[in-house]
Amino acid sequence: MASKPTSFSIQLTLMVVFLTTQVVLSADTPMPSDKTQLGQWFSNNVKPLNNRKGTLDSQLVAAEQGQTVIKPLNNRKGTLDRQLVAAEQGQTVIKVRQDGKGQFKTITDALKSIPNGNKKRVILHIGPGTYKEEIVVPNNKPFITFYGTPGQMPTLTYGGTAKQYGTVESGTLSVLSDYFVGANIIIRNSAPRPGLNTVGGQAVALRVSGDKATFYNCQIYSYQDTLLDDANRHFFKDCYIQGTVDYIFGSGKSLYVNCEIRTLGDSGLTFITAQARKSNKEDNGFSFVHCELTGTGTGAYLGRAWFGYSTVIFSYCNMDNIFNKAGWSNNNHKEYDKTLYFGEYMNTGPGADATGRSHLTRKLKYAEVQHYLGLGMIEGSKWLLPPPKV
């Protein structure tokens, strides 16, 4: 005869059922192939802070009561960073207004007012207008948000070039700190489009080096080297990015969702990406999902190899008829051919035609691309929150 279940075994069974349920609820769900379902996917996977604190609080309560809490790895991945929760619970808003009706007239002065080692979310509510500044968010000032009002988006602009500053330091906005959020901001490098023989004409609009940076509804303009996706994890949603050569480049580990990527390809070679993964030991790459690839000209490339392990994937994207048939380039480094990871999955539009595609192209299967379709690629469930409202 089987023995009766003990009180402990009943509690353990209930705990297993509870934890299993939690794993299902917090699992990283890949984006759907149907773009009309993207909004629902986002709201299901990126919930407001108040809807997510309960999980963390219940764990703390259990711990304080002397309970043993056994959490599976997948469930732990879904828990917001504790320092982020603490930061978001103590927000401060600083108004930046050119007309003098805010605390500061310039973004740079507002940033200077934030103490080093800041541990609370500080929102710079930037009024409409054009702010001609070279702006650096230093690495010792995390949890900063640049927020513009939709319909009255401010423009941040500067004209730095590689010839003057070096490419990396030429950015109009350089984000070196962690947990940065940009929302409803226009970022522009006003330097002229470099000619074919121009030396040092590269001009970065945005450089992002800090970890866990998010950009919602931002517009980013330049020509060569527009966006330096420099290092660490980033998320871009509903953004517009425009350029000519290598205009999304760097060693970032980034997810681009529902963005318009516009190539100005009227003359000369044009490349969207130049990703900088250097070895199979590095964990970085760019994933573009449900993006619109638009532009001018007919000779653009999806990407070229900056280093031997460059990793770029386009999935569910709509591609205009602006591309060279080959699509990808090893940048005259045949030795890179076996290690590059240039992937395409279920893209549409005339530019997605596989006829004549380079041998570098990986036509991915769902099992291969799944990792690049969800927040798990960037561990986003630990740090992503919906767009701010001020």
From TrEMBL:
Which major enzyme category is it?
hydrolase
Q: Which GO terms describe its biological process?
A: cell wall modification; pectin catabolic process
Please list the coiled coil stretches.
none
Keyword terms, alphabetized: Aspartyl esterase, Cell wall, Hydrolase, Secreted, Signal
- Gene Ontology MF term list: pectinesterase activity
Q: Enumerate the subcellular locations listed in this protein's record, separating them with semicolons.
A: Secreted, Cell wall
Pathway terms, separated by semicolons = Glycan metabolism; pectin degradation; 2-dehydro-3-deoxy-D-gluconate from pectin: step 1/5
This entry's Enzyme Commission designation comes to: 3.1.1.11
Matching InterPro entries: Pectin_lyas_fold, Pectin_lyase_fold/virulence, Pectinesterase_Asp_AS, Pectinesterase_cat
Q: Which reaction does it catalyse?
A: [(1->4)-alpha-D-galacturonosyl methyl ester](n) + n H2O = [(1->4)-alpha-D-galacturonosyl](n) + n methanol + n H(+)
Question: Active-site residues?
Answer: 246
* Pfam families, per database record: Pectinesterase
Q: Which residues form the signal peptide?
A: 1-26
Question: Domain of life, per the record?
Answer: Eukaryota
Residues annotated as domain Pectinesterase catalytic: 95-359
Which family does the record claim for this protein? Belongs to the pectinesterase family.
Q: What is this protein called?
A: Pectinesterase
